[in-house]
Amino acid sequence: QVQVVESGGGLVQEGGSLTLTCTASGLNFDGYTMGWFRQAPGKEREGVSCLKWSGELTYYAESVKGRFNISRGTAKNTVFLQMNSLKPDDTAMYYCAALVSIDDYCSAWQALDPANYWGQGTQVTVSA
Known about the structure:
Blueprint: E1 3-7, E2 10-13, E3 18-25, E4 33-39, E5 46-52, E6 58-60, E7 68-72, E8 78-83, E9 92-99, H1 108-111, E10 117-118, E11 122-127
Parallel strand pairs: 2-11
Antiparallel strand pairs: 1-3, 3-8, 4-5, 4-9, 5-6, 7-8, 9-10, 9-11
């Protein structure tokens, strides 16, 4: 059984930092892409960052480039999202997904393919 679990969300002031952790189990990571997505109230889910497990592709949304960094942990089943210089616009529920079906642009619509696995999300709130 595949499980994807996010942690590390919380309340932070504008300009602060948070690190989200995603731990997945029950699958062979070779060939998967790990992705972080977010959805704010009243907005569509959007791709934040994706990382092919082989490391050959890393994607960042324009809105987070230079501020967020995705990386693999030393434990093979863990991926992090380091978020710096946070803005109120970053406030959203953040989801981690293990993706066997995804394009090169970390598109949320493709990530919703039933072949992919999602966590339950972790809330990030950035106060002004």
